[in-house]
Amino acid sequence: MDTKRIWYSPKSSLTSADTVHQTLMFGTLHEIRSIKNSIGENVVKKLFLAHPKKIYTLPALNFIKNFILHITDPVDEQKYLKYAPRHIR
CA-CA distance, 58 to 30, in Å (whole number)? Predict the structure, then answer.
């Protein structure tokens, strides 16, 4: 994948949840296509759903969920939206 790194660590693996989330939220469509082709769309979906990150805006989350990853099942938006209150236990 020939892209500039948009995430914070130069040692990130393509299969890390942080890399996937940072690319989905802040990457270009070309970078998103590259990561989907490199590690597979199913792996990207699995990492997106198994390791939610609170970095998304509502329009971005809906675009990524519906058009990029084609997820038809509902997701808990509170786990993904950066403006949603955090659950403190």
Answer: 22
User: Hey, what are 64's tokens?
Assistant: 């990524």
Per-residue pLDDT of 40-77, as tens digits, reads 999 999 999 999 999 999 999 999 999 999 999 999 99
The encoded tokens of residue 36 equal 């989907």
Q: Which two tokens mark 2?
A: 């020939």
Residue 88's SS3 state is: coil
Q: At what angle do helices 41-50 and 29-39 cross, to 10 degrees?
A: 100
d(Cα 38, Cα 54) in Å, to the nearest integer? 24
For the chain, the structural domain boundaries read 17-79
Q: What's the whole-model pTM score?
A: 0.82
By C-alpha distance, which of 66, 50, 64, 60 is closest to 81?
A: 60
Of 61, 71, 63, 69, nearest in space to 41 by CA: 69
